[in-house]
Design a protein that fits this description.
Length: about 120
């Protein structure tokens, strides 16, 4: 693996970690309604799963394993976006939700591109 490829891999690890951390910070500021609590739990799980599965993909033992983990990353990023859309937020949090939705969308596209290039 070249130095450039190695750096890109870890940049995406950092990016997915940052996404999960930012989601957790966002969740803390939500109104504690029943739906926000339940949807927030799902969002925390899916946002963390994006990065965790990317780390697993980087340690894959085979190309098939790598592709499966990347597909899971893409699926979890899509799911994160879904949960973000369901949350009830006030005007103060709408901008942050929009930023997080966009990041989930970008991560979905990135993992889709990785899949396309790897197959």
């Amino acid at each position: 693996m070249t130095e450039k490829q190695n750096t890109k891999r870890y940049d995406l690890e950092d990016r997915t970690f940052g996404f999960a951390k930012r989601v957790r910070s966002f969740i803390k500021d939500l109104n504690k309604t029943l739906s926000n609590i339940e949807d927030g739990k799902q969002l925390v799980r899916s946002s963390g799963s994006v990065g965790a599965n990317y780390i697993e993909a980087n340690e894959a033992l085979s190309k098939k394993d790598f592709l499966m983990r990347i597909k899971i990353c893409r699926k979890e990023a899509k799911e994160s976006r879904y949960w973000l859309k369901l949350l009830n937020v006030n005007d103060e949090l709408e901008k942050e939700r929009s930023i997080l939705e966009n990041e989930a969308k970008e991560l979905t596209h990135i993992f889709g591109a990785i899949l396309t290039k790897s197959q």
